[in-house]
Amino acid sequence: MSVELEMECEGLEEFQQKVQRLDSGMQTKVQQQLADLGESIKETAKQIVPVRTGYLRSTIFSEIQEWTVKVGAHARYAVYVEFGTRFMRGFQFLSRAMEMHHPQLTHLIDNSIDEAATEAST
Protein backbone atom coordinates (compact mmCIF):
# COMPACT_ATOMS: atom_id res chain seq x y z
CA MET A 1 0.00 0.00 0.00
CA SER A 2 1.26 3.48 -0.79
CA VAL A 3 -0.16 6.96 -1.00
CA GLU A 4 -0.18 9.22 -4.05
CA LEU A 5 -1.54 12.70 -4.59
CA GLU A 6 -2.18 14.43 -7.88
CA MET A 7 -2.39 18.14 -8.60
CA GLU A 8 -4.94 19.34 -11.09
CA CYS A 9 -5.67 22.88 -12.20
CA GLU A 10 -8.70 24.41 -13.80
CA GLY A 11 -8.24 24.96 -17.52
CA LEU A 12 -6.19 21.80 -17.97
CA GLU A 13 -8.22 20.61 -20.99
CA GLU A 14 -7.77 23.98 -22.69
CA PHE A 15 -4.07 23.81 -21.91
CA GLN A 16 -3.74 20.28 -23.34
CA GLN A 17 -5.55 21.26 -26.54
CA LYS A 18 -3.28 24.27 -27.07
CA VAL A 19 -0.13 22.34 -26.27
CA GLN A 20 -1.12 19.70 -28.85
CA ARG A 21 -0.84 22.42 -31.49
CA LEU A 22 2.71 23.22 -30.47
CA ASP A 23 5.82 21.64 -31.79
CA SER A 24 7.44 18.82 -29.85
CA GLY A 25 10.13 21.19 -28.55
CA MET A 26 7.59 23.29 -26.68
CA GLN A 27 5.82 20.19 -25.36
CA THR A 28 9.14 18.88 -24.09
CA LYS A 29 9.84 22.22 -22.41
CA VAL A 30 6.50 22.14 -20.57
CA GLN A 31 7.00 18.51 -19.56
CA GLN A 32 10.45 19.38 -18.15
CA GLN A 33 8.99 22.28 -16.17
CA LEU A 34 6.37 19.92 -14.72
CA ALA A 35 9.08 17.38 -13.87
CA ASP A 36 11.13 20.09 -12.15
CA LEU A 37 8.08 21.17 -10.17
CA GLY A 38 7.45 17.56 -9.13
CA GLU A 39 11.04 17.30 -7.90
CA SER A 40 10.63 20.50 -5.89
CA ILE A 41 7.46 19.14 -4.28
CA LYS A 42 9.23 15.87 -3.51
CA GLU A 43 12.14 17.67 -1.86
CA THR A 44 9.78 19.79 0.23
CA ALA A 45 7.91 16.66 1.35
CA LYS A 46 11.22 15.07 2.32
CA GLN A 47 12.08 18.12 4.42
CA ILE A 48 8.80 18.18 6.36
CA VAL A 49 8.01 14.46 6.74
CA PRO A 50 8.37 13.19 10.29
CA VAL A 51 11.48 11.02 10.58
CA ARG A 52 12.06 8.13 12.93
CA THR A 53 14.21 5.76 10.84
CA GLY A 54 14.29 7.64 7.54
CA TYR A 55 12.58 4.86 5.59
CA LEU A 56 9.40 6.84 4.83
CA ARG A 57 11.46 9.78 3.61
CA SER A 58 13.51 7.49 1.36
CA THR A 59 10.35 6.23 -0.40
CA ILE A 60 8.98 9.65 -1.39
CA PHE A 61 8.81 9.99 -5.17
CA SER A 62 7.56 12.25 -7.93
CA GLU A 63 6.63 11.36 -11.48
CA ILE A 64 4.96 12.88 -14.48
CA GLN A 65 2.22 11.00 -16.29
CA GLU A 66 0.91 12.85 -19.32
CA TRP A 67 0.15 16.29 -17.85
CA THR A 68 -0.22 15.17 -14.24
CA VAL A 69 2.31 15.60 -11.45
CA LYS A 70 2.17 12.68 -9.00
CA VAL A 71 3.93 12.81 -5.68
CA GLY A 72 3.72 9.98 -3.19
CA ALA A 73 5.50 7.59 -0.88
CA HIS A 74 5.85 3.84 -1.31
CA ALA A 75 6.20 3.02 2.40
CA ARG A 76 3.17 0.90 3.28
CA TYR A 77 2.42 3.08 6.29
CA ALA A 78 2.69 6.40 4.40
CA VAL A 79 -1.08 6.71 4.09
CA TYR A 80 -1.43 6.54 7.88
CA VAL A 81 1.19 9.22 8.43
CA GLU A 82 -0.43 11.42 5.77
CA PHE A 83 -4.07 11.05 6.82
CA GLY A 84 -3.85 9.67 10.35
CA THR A 85 -5.76 6.91 12.11
CA ARG A 86 -8.25 6.89 14.89
CA PHE A 87 -5.26 6.78 17.26
CA MET A 88 -3.16 9.59 15.74
CA ARG A 89 -3.61 12.74 13.71
CA GLY A 90 -2.33 12.86 10.16
CA PHE A 91 0.80 14.85 9.44
CA GLN A 92 -0.07 15.66 5.79
CA PHE A 93 3.51 15.95 4.60
CA LEU A 94 2.53 15.35 0.96
CA SER A 95 -0.58 17.54 0.99
CA ARG A 96 1.28 20.43 2.59
CA ALA A 97 4.19 20.13 0.15
CA MET A 98 1.76 20.27 -2.76
CA GLU A 99 -0.11 23.22 -1.29
CA MET A 100 3.16 25.09 -0.83
CA HIS A 101 4.01 24.64 -4.53
CA HIS A 102 0.50 25.10 -5.95
CA PRO A 103 1.15 28.76 -6.88
CA GLN A 104 4.14 27.61 -8.95
CA LEU A 105 1.96 25.10 -10.81
CA THR A 106 -0.67 27.73 -11.50
CA HIS A 107 2.03 30.11 -12.76
CA LEU A 108 3.57 27.38 -14.94
CA ILE A 109 0.19 26.50 -16.49
CA ASP A 110 -0.73 30.15 -17.06
CA ASN A 111 2.60 30.92 -18.74
CA SER A 112 2.41 27.77 -20.85
CA ILE A 113 -1.15 28.59 -21.99
CA ASP A 114 0.00 32.09 -22.96
CA GLU A 115 2.98 30.69 -24.88
CA ALA A 116 0.78 28.04 -26.52
CA ALA A 117 -1.75 30.69 -27.58
CA THR A 118 0.99 32.87 -29.02
CA GLU A 119 2.60 29.97 -30.89
CA ALA A 120 -0.71 28.59 -32.17
CA SER A 121 -1.81 31.99 -33.47
CA THR A 122 1.31 32.54 -35.57
Write the layout of secondary structure elements.
Layout: E1 3-7, H1 12-20, H2 24-48, H3 55-58, E2 60-65, E3 68-73, H4 78-83, H5 93-121
Antiparallel strand pairs: 1-3, 2-3
Features:
alpha+beta; three-stranded antiparallel β-sheet; 3 strands
Question: Your description of this structure?
Answer:
The protein is α+β, with helices and mostly antiparallel strands and 122 residues long. The chain has one domain. 60% of the residues lie in helices and 14% in strands. The protein is built from five helices and three strands; from the N terminus they run E-H-H-H-E-E-H-H. It has a three-stranded antiparallel beta sheet. Strand 2 (60-65) and strand 3 form a beta hairpin. Helix 1 packs across helix 5. The longest helix has 29 residues, at 93-121.
Question: Approximately what portion of the residues adopt beta-strand conformation?
Answer: 5-15%
Please state how the strands of the largest beta sheet are arranged side by side. Answer: 1-3-2
Helix content: 55-70%
Q: Compute the number of helices.
A: 5
Number of domains in the coordinates?
1
Q: Report how far apart the termini are.
A: 48 Å
**SSE ordering:** EHHHEEHH
Mean pLDDT over the residues = 83
- Computed Rg: 17 Å
Quickly give the structural class: alpha+beta
Strand elements, count: 3
Low-confidence stretches: none
> Any idea what the shape is?
elongated
Describe the sheet with the most strands. 3 strands, antiparallel
